[in-house]
TrEMBL record:
Segments crossing the lipid bilayer: 62-79, 85-102, 114-134, 140-160, 165-183, 195-212, 219-240, 246-266
Organism, scientific name: Paenibacillus mendelii
Alphabetically ordered keywords of this record: Membrane, Transmembrane, Transmembrane helix
Highest taxon in the source lineage: Bacteria
Tagged with keyword Transmembrane: yes
Protein name: DUF2157 domain-containing protein
Keyword Methyltransferase recorded: no
Amino acid sequence: MDQDRRKIIIKEIEHWQRSKLLPDQYCDFLLNLYLESGEEREPANLSGKAVKAIKLATWKHWLLTFGIFSLICFVILYFSAFHPVLQIAVSLSGVLLLLLFGQRYRAKSESAGLALIGSGMLLMLGAGLYMLQLHELERWGWKAGLLAVCALFWVIFGIAARIPILHLCGWIASFLVYAWLLSNNTQSPEWYEVQLYWLPASFVFGWCSWFFHRWSRPISAVLFVAGALIWFMPELYAKLFVEDWLWLQLQLIVKIMAGGAILFSLRKKWIAWVA
């Protein structure tokens, strides 16, 4: 049998075994038929691949691994003693490495790549909050500024790397920053003022969704979902930040009915934007 064809069949059988499409004993039997004498089977799970990598590792690999692990432990233990500039540089280096490896691993495994990218984004936010606390920058403006920077980066990176969920998380974080700014700069707003703070942005996002759909459907879909979220932000904002909110349940029911009517009447248009 042709070697390339045999490798394709072996990979397909391994896929059946990983996906539980066939019992393990059937897959093992089929693999034994197609494996040549003396040929070792590639491990299908992560633990098997790790064991094989450990067996094949040389002393240089072990030395490099322990060196990197020791460096990470050193940075974690003495991070608070570093100069602020060095702290920022170390944090950004960690974020960039996670994003770089995440993008590289996405070609092999989408879930592993996204996990690394998500870890990098959380490291950016977590390290920033830790440094603010470490240097006693506890005012809300510093935290809001950090979250705004993270939101902007998530939006840009989510669009560039084609990760819609990260793009959407960036917009949600920006909504939190806006709500934070409103809560610290307004005093007991009326219910209609709260609606005016948010509803125009919902229509702006809807228009942007229509505008961008001709170039990118994923971006258009994210903007459409963000606009739908803003539609209900006045009620959430009133629940969290307004002490004397009035008829909140009635407002929410009216908003749901009005939003449903708008979506139904314009369904042929907005479905074309996001589908």
